[in-house]
């Protein structure tokens, strides 16, 4: 076993494990050898083999609620076979459940881990739970070691970067808004005030150094900026970043922010600066279409008008916009009557359809199903009101499975807490199963129905009456929907039907041409799906089309390139003729 060798691990994702790469940078700066392993589908066989071959002295793993049970088992196995290896765990789950995590690890690192990992690797810290102390400057990430091991990440045309952690907002479902009293052992954090995850903004020079390294060493077309709220500080950080990024790195990027950040003159100035820097796309969360649900359940008391005005600005500035929403929320216990269950989910489609009709955006609408993570305020709310009583061992590993909540039949109000044991109030087993399936299917077709005029009506008809949920039935319902709209003189529907006929001339099959006609850059989509027969390959091709050709494609950049090519061409012509 090599005394200065560390193996970092995380569950597999197509996105680089940014947190680990920064921690790896810290280990590199302390002279440690590093390796990385991403575990696919909770299968730890390869991981154990790597431990056997690499013989690390330390294993550090990122744990979240969803992989915590599998990791517990894997670490018990590891400890039995390699008792000398030191196990460090960090990430959201150990931060909220340090005592529980300590059972299967030697060190538990809570919240931001730079300070604690440094102490551990320098041999100054004993085996213990290490609460957050002080924020440290992000070490330069260890991309090279990671990309050498993971060429698919190295060759991805999209690279992720993070310029800050922490968030000033207080969404109830988000770890970022948690405070020390929300964890399973608050006494560990006595004296710690404020948020559990601190606000740590990287110096612009560090971000530029990283951007340049990416640009010079690995094929990259765009950057995905993982900040939760990018560009908060419009006085100092953002102006400096814009100037440096534009002049030195000049890679287009997609980022994330809140609708409130688009408001007023300051919002306009922020968007101007972002465009100047090369930001061409933004993701903003709507989460719920109902103001009472947003305010009381999610702590996002934002007006609908902020979204409409914000979206209009974003589209006028030329941003590609993705909206995000959460379906299957714990409905029914608000102070005022709100839409419930499927109705509330469908209202999200309607809101996106209305936004698109009035402002031209979003470019893409993405939906998840709510999971009640313990430790978050909304997780506790679900237990209090009776929507959930599990221990999170059933929390799905991805956003793409069925809900694990139960739902009231109709709105009850604040008193639900006192009546939660009355089974009459809740959907029966069969009703619950039906809603969970409808919800999962709505999530699957969400972006598509948001692109369709009156798409909420199409979604409702399909989800309530289709005898099966599959592409075939969706096509049938879509066709009827468009024929009805066209018969009533709906101009957009008539245009889309015409386009679908034209797409057939380009080679689109009749049963998918209308679906394709609803998508942006439809003729390009036709070429992507040609020859694909089964539904799975078709959906994968469509997903790639929507991300590669639409959301993550900086059309302005292409225009710039095209026009510079055109001007080169003119020069050539001039040279020839002269
Ligand atoms: S704005 Fe985003 S990062 Fe901030 S608390 Fe809300 S969900 Fe979390």
From TrEMBL:
CDD domains to which the protein is assigned, alphabetical: radical_SAM_B12_BD
Entry annotated with the keyword Metal-binding: yes
Required cofactor names: [4Fe-4S] cluster
Keywords: Iron, Iron-sulfur, Metal-binding, S-adenosyl-L-methionine
InterPro entries from the UniProt entry: Aldolase_TIM, BchE-like, Cobalamin-bd, Cobalamin-bd_sf, Elp3/MiaA/NifB-like_rSAM, rSAM, rSAM_sf
SMART domains the UniProt entry points to: Elp3
A single GO molecular function term of this UniProt record: cobalamin binding
Membrane-spanning residues: none
Start and end residues of each B12-binding domain: 3-131
The keyword Iron-sulfur appears for this protein: yes
Name of the featured protein: B12-binding domain-containing protein
Originating species: marine sediment metagenome
Organism placement in taxonomy: unclassified sequences, metagenomes, ecological metagenomes
